[in-house]
Amino acid sequence: MKVIICGAGQVGWQIARHLSGERNDVTVVDNNPDLVARATETLDVQGITGFASYPDVLDQAGARDADMVIAATYSDEVNMVTCQVAHSVFAVPRKIARLRAQSYLTAIYRDLYRQDHLPIDVVISPEREVAEAALRRLQAPSAFDTERFLDDRATLLGIALDEDCPVLNTPLRQLTDLFSTLNAVVVGVRREGTLFAPEANDQLFEGDQIYVFSETKDVNRTLEIFGKQVRRQERVVILGGGNVGRAVAEALETRTDRVRAKIIELDRGVAERAADALERTVVLHGNGLDRELLKEAGIGRADAILAVTSDDKVNMLAAVRARNMGCPMSICLVNDPSLVPLMEPLGIDAYINPRQTTVSSILRHIRHGRVRGVYSVGDAEAEVIEAQVLSTSPMAGNRISEIDFPEGVLVGGILKGGKYLKPTGSTRVDEDDVVVIFAMAGDVPEVERLLQVSIDYF
Q1: pLDDT at residue 110 above 70?
Q2: Domains 2-124 and 235-356 share a fold
Q3: Whole-angstrom Cα distance, residue 236 to residue 302?
Q4: Domain 235-356, what architecture?
Q5: Is the pLDDT of residue 22 over 90?
Q6: What mean pLDDT do residues 225-245 have?
Q7: Terminal CA-to-CA distance of the chain, rounded, Å?
Q8: Which residues of 369-407 are buried (b: 16+ CB within 10 A; e: fewer)?
Q9: Which residues in 7-153 belong to E strands, given as ranges?
Q10: Which of 140, 348, 357, 331 is nearest to 240 (CA)?
Q11: What distance in Å separates the CA atoms of residue 7 and residue 79, rounded to the nearest whole number?
Q12: Position 455 confidence tier, pLDDT thresholds 50, 70, 90
């Protein structure tokens, strides 16, 4: 597949890394020569320096025979015009655009993106993706990472193991015997900074970060088994009243289980707009690092602080201060991946990486065929792929133990005839089953071969 990626920032670079690693023909376009040089020097991609929306630049990038354009520059308008030019001048079959401004995303204007208007096939909103990720974190506050699969019937949980975890030093095979009715599978373990897919005889140790695939109804029990308290969130303080914070507050207002939220916002204009848009949420204007303002927001009685300003360091410092003032749970928005290793030493419970959520959303739309969902784990170290099994797949008709999976691949869950199954070696995979597979990054092409979803998606 030939792909043009417009924008060589964090998201564009990460998408280029995924696709070039799968032997696709990738060209990166950006008007910043340093970003283009970084992409071409570190990845197997071609690079063009110039404005992505210019027809001659797209032509130079190979748009005449491209299969897809992904417009992920920092400008919504450039992304929109790029898709228009790709369609009108070069007839590129598939166009994906990242749009930030909420006005472009309002439902009443959805006809704007028809082929005869602005021909964008898929619109990705980072703010909405991040807001949804924040809500998932609040629903499972003891997990540092969460994602839903199989029409919300299954959940991927990232759990950090502490010294009081009751199943430390227990082989995974034995966990299955101890909790035979638990529909959960450990699919990934990060130990001393290295992520791997565990084997049945592997043990879990203090300090490990594990990824567990669980039936959603078993999430609370899964968390308890791995030593995490399950707390119902009743009071939440949100630091940042912009698009993300406001979207989270709006969602919390509509939940049947009442959650009281308060927003702290430094910019008066943003605070006023948030106050106008929200009905039951209290909006406070001021600095979220101010102890008196945090007291006024009731941080000592809050169940969680969700820090989602545009400043990573403010988010982290506010989370630390909130914890020191008695708030038991802190969740931070962190754009800079180099800051992630500081989360644990600072006592921050969970973080949201906008790049990771946006990359996962774009990959979900890139992988066609019967692939229904993709989630990028960590720093693109692994993927969780949800896909329907085709009749031509080597998996169809075989038991899991008979399928030639690479060492870095595990099946997390199966939906068979509308019923969720916890996979075992004797579980038979049939045509039309929906499987969720954890795969280390280097094993993704082999997983796609097993699913019979060709890398040439078109």
Answers
A1: no
A2: yes
A3: 6
A4: 3-Layer(aba) Sandwich (3.40)
A5: no
A6: 88
A7: 8
A8: ebbbbbbbbbebebbbbbbbbbeebbbbeeebeebebee
A9: 25-30, 46-49, 68-71, 94-98, 122-124, 145-149
A10: 331
A11: 9
A12: very low
Tell me how far apart the alpha carbons of residues 245 and 36 are, in angstroms, rounded to a whole number: 33
- Strand runs labelled E in 396-442: 398-399, 409-416, 419-421, 428-429, 434-440
Residue 214: per-residue pLDDT: 95
Whole-prediction pTM value? 0.73
Q: Is the CATH number 3.40.50.720 carried by domain 2-124?
A: yes
3-state secondary structure of 215: strand
Phi, psi of 52 (to 5 degrees): -60, -25
Spatial CB neighbours of 371, under 8 Å, sequence gap ≥ 6 = 364, 385, 386, 387, 448, 451, 453
Cα–Cα distance measured from residue 208 to residue 194, given in angstroms and rounded to the nearest whole number = 10
Phi, psi of 6 (to 5 degrees): -100, 115
- Alpha carbon 55 to chain centroid, angstroms: 32
Domain boundaries, the chain: 2-124, 235-356, 357-451
**pLDDT interval class at 109 (50, 70, 90):** low
pLDDT tier, 379 (very low <50, low <70, confident <90, very high otherwise): confident
The CATH architecture of the domain made up of 357-451 is 2-Layer Sandwich (3.30)
